What we know:
The protein has 105 residues and is mainly beta. It has no helices and ten strands. It has a domain at 9-43 and 58-79: SH3 type barrels, CATH 2.30.30.30.
Amino acid sequence: MRKIRKGDQVVIRTGKDRGKRGAVLRLVGDDRVVVEGANRAKKHEKPNPMKGTTGGIVDREMPVHISNVAVFNPSTQKGDRVRIKTLDDGRKVRIFRSNGEMLDA
């Protein structure tokens, strides 16, 4: 089970986008995530009439290392670490380290 999943609200902890908050759009490999609105870079795109793209310079979100993001805790309004706990019925759930609240319902 992963500690950070697609759709989670995360906070960037280090780098040029420190403090920005956004949703995880996708996971790239085992150790990188793409966060909405963070780590944007300008990329030159060729026109492709088959796909319907006009080309030019476009802004794209680039991957961030998973160690540089923290899951946003709504009760403390800060980024927080997450641990995995196995319940009595065998289910695994993610729990915030600071206050013990369950992240998964």
